[in-house]
Design goal:
By secondary structure, the chain is of the alpha/beta class. It folds into two domains: 59 residues, no CATH class; 163 residues, Metallo-beta-lactamase, Chain A. The protein is 20% helix and 27% strand. It contains seven helices and 13 strands. The longest helix has 10 residues. It starts with a strand and ends in a 12-residue tail after the last strand. The model has no long low-confidence stretch (mean pLDDT 92).
């Protein structure tokens, strides 16, 4: 069965190279191809079970140009499941970054990814993405990466402001409250729970807990359900 991948089209970086989801998908199995792993498996499987080019041959890729307004990039009409649509919007992190919203009969989810505010220097009104906020109006669930405020350059972490400011921070809770989200799922935590360092940068107060991330989101004013996305964390949305 072919797999479907949806991502933003190629974007030129200011540093002179191209950020390409299309090439990522095309070369996703290169390590297995070059190491002989796939060839070995084909021999063992009689030659017809596995494709010569590996998983890339199964990929059905749809690309789009990320814009300032939400756009539907994929949809499905099913008499049993109901209508499902995926929307996307441009957001700031690296060139070509986009954030997504999935609307289903059961509920809606926004996946912000690593999005941050377009303004990457202080002072700025908030750390969160205005584009993600637009995408998330009336959503049930927001899933978003977060950098704990303790890693701020003014908190003796050693983390440069240009690194810290590339992630949303404490005011994710405020954004979730503004769009009336019911659930906020924090993921891709910086720093990782229990870690003394975030990369090369120390955690000034020592290792953080899930409660520390939850308090940071609550400090932004969010009164809904907060889930700190540790391994295997899940959330079931009751059907409407």
């Amino acid at each position: 069965m072919n797999s479907l991948s949806v991502c933003s089209g190629d974007v030129a970086s200011q540093f002179g190279f191209t950020v390409s989801c299309q090439k990522f998908v095309a070369h996703i199995a290169d390590a297995f191809l070059q190491s002989g792993e796939i060839a070995q498996r084909r021999v063992e499987g009689g030659g017809n079970v596995r494709l010569v080019g590996g998983p890339a041959e199964l990929a059905n890729l749809i690309t789009f140009k990320a814009t300032e307004e939400p756009q539907v990039v994929w949809s499905l009409r099913d008499v049993k499941v109901g209508d499902v649509k995926v929307s996307a919007i441009r957001s700031t992190h690296i060139p070509g970054h986009a954030s997504y919203r999935v609307d289903t009969p059961a509920g809606s989810v926004v996946i912000g990814g690593d999005a941050t505010n377009d303004v990457l220097t202080q002072p700025r009104a908030h750390s969160t993405s205005d584009q993600v906020e637009l995408l998330a109006k009336g959503v049930d669930v927001i899933v978003h990466s977060t950098m704990h405020p303790i890693m701020g350059p003014d908190r003796d972490s050693g983390m440069p402001s240009e690194v810290f400011n590339r992630q949303s921070s404490t005011d994710l809770g405020a954004m979730a409250q503004r769009v009336n989200a019911k659930h906020l799922v924090l993921t891709h935590l910086g720093p990782s729970i229990g870690a003394a360092f975030q990369g090369a940068y120390k955690v000034p107060v020592g290792a953080l807990t899930a409660a520390d991330f939850r308090k940071a989101a609550e400090a932004g004013g969010f009164t809904g359900n907060i889930i700190v996305g540790t391994d295997l964390a899940s959330l079931r949305i009751p059907g409407k």
